[in-house]
What we know:
It contains 9 helices and 13 strands. Strand 9 and strand 10 form a beta hairpin.
Amino acid sequence: MKLVGIIGSIADESYNRKLMLYIASHFKETIDIEILDIRDVPMFRAGMEMGPAVEYLDKKISAADGVIIATPEHNHTTTAALKSVIEWLSSSVHPFADKPVLLVGASYFEQGSGRAQLDLRQILESPGVNALVMPKDEFLLGNVKSAFDENGNLKEARTVSFLESVMGNFLKWIKVLKAMKKNNDVKGDWESEDLTASQEIDTTVKGVDMKAEDWVEQAAAKTNAVEGDTYVKLDRGLLTVNQLNWFLNTMPVELTFADDNNQFIYYNRMDENPKDMLAPRQPKQVGDPLESVHPERALKGVKHVVHTLRTGETDLVSMPVPFINKVNEKHVMHYYKAMHDEDGRYRGINEWVVDIWPVVESYLKMTGQKLVADENAKVDATSGASEKKEEPVATPETDATSGASESETKVEEVKVAEPEVDATSGASES
């Protein structure tokens, strides 16, 4: 689980910073907590553009499963600096919306930062912020001057035990909210699927026009993206960016990545000439919303496919591309696979396009079998005979040592009516 911790103080010496550092260290074996500093954030002023410090906070909070805020108490309330940060993050961007938040705090006095936390809770739950502040449990660390040892660890075992209890409840609450959100997401009409990529998600590159022909170059410059021989650590591998490109560009399938905002953000260029591709793509299309890379007649089908994957109705959609298929010469398939992160959240679509006929042809030659037309088969114009289970085919005698490699087996032509173009067959025509 990925959490971020926000320190509500901008003081150089802060006990709330010490508390947050302790929380991150104490739970590091089970929880990934990234601490965010607000000292570089300017005071909020309406009409002022967000700077990089605010954009950074927005991105990190949006991507996190939950937020921990450590607030001091200044004059019975939270700090002006923290209040300013929340104003920034509730004006043009809203990363706290529906985000689980846990409040903690440290104070010189016995009651801890109780009044500041109460004030902060009201701010976070106000319209425009709409955070989901953890109910019931609050961690109030009083007499903070004597609470830590010389190594920055909490001294009292009871205090540590209570903190562990509060954190345990917070994690359970995050999981409950996730489950509730997932159930709600399943509902809804597929026609409402937004193919314009109008929403901002945690991976959206802000400040770059999605429809710009050089979106890749602009977005790379905006994000300081690595390239060349810079290493990238993957789940089970370590590759340079160049190696990743070589690897992906030599895949025997055409790959496309559409994120969970329905933005087309990657394809592997299998051929320099788009016309020679099974599903033609052009460099200038990368970055476009899905609406822009499909013909208008196909949009209903695209919405339906995306929605079924997003809601979990299915995990994989497959369909042939009938208008370019030729019996016993080419059979091109589109596959759309839902992608999820480690927490099960939908993160987009992995599309691959492949001509499966060479595989079928090789199998037939190797086994000495042949295709036989089924006179009773009803061919679906959109799915072909892919859903029809073939009757067992008689197997001719083959060489036990060399298989069928030495015998010429003529593949009989399967006569199939030429189907109409499927409106859901993707962007292969555009």
